[in-house]
Amino acid sequence: MRELQLLEALAERSEVSQSALAGLVGLTPARVNAYIQRFVTDGYVVTAQRSRGVSYHLTPAGQHALAFHRVSYRAELVALTRAARSTFRLFFSELRSRGIFRVVLYGAGETGEVVLDALADSEVVTVLAVIDDDVRKQGRTCHGRPIRHRAVIPQLAPDAIVITSITAAAEIRERLRLTDGGLDIPIVTIAGPETEPGSFPAAVRDVPPAAAGDVALAHDHP
User: Fold this and answer.
1) What is the pLDDT of residues 208-221, one digit of tens each?
2) Contact status, residue 131 vs residue 107, Cβ threshold 8 Å
């Protein structure tokens, strides 16, 4: 991935400093220098002195390496997308086996989009809406589902709220807890810090006591 980023950067701009490259790809200048030296050794890059430093130029071998990395990266993305679809379908199939048929997704970010893509043309569960706190997203759609404010959740009456945000799951759970004194709706998360290593797709739950027996996932029990 780093090689791809660096080769793409050099293909776009030959007159770029190593410190600028470091900022682009998130590496230290020393690490960038090590990559550059390897590119030169492998015949991917040739350097030329200029008045304000050094310029870098991809050779035909470097162009070929760039093309190879691009194809490999896209192939990896396809494989990861297929794996994600399979994992999410399994996740929602287990929810369905626990009596959860109608859900709202909380989070209209990238994970939410992947979830909706995985559920496309599937009757595993019905997604009533996507909830998001970003007012710029509200009123739009995400894979054909309306993006709404969390205030509409009681009206939709879902069987469960599925948090799709990985980084903001804790904050979302707290917001839901404070919504009109708390919603009497089971909450599960796609994944997050509460999920035990190796147990994905475990649903981390925060269910009202009365509903706990109905929706608790099998692997939540010892």
Assistant:
1) 333 333 333 333 33
2) yes
Topology of 2-58 in CATH? Arc Repressor Mutant, subunit A (1.10.10)
**Banded model confidence at residue 198, pLDDT cuts 50, 70, 90:** very low
CATH 3.40.50.720 matches 84-220: yes
Strand order in the sheet with 141-142: 141-142, 145-148, 126-131, 102-106, 160-163, 187-189, 204-205
DSSP character at residue 138: T
pTM: 0.58
Give, to the nearest 10 degrees, the angle between helix 29-42 and helix 18-25.
Answer: 100
pLDDT-based confidence at 180, cuts 50/70/90? Answer: low
Closest by alpha carbon to 186, among 150, 164, 166, 157? 157
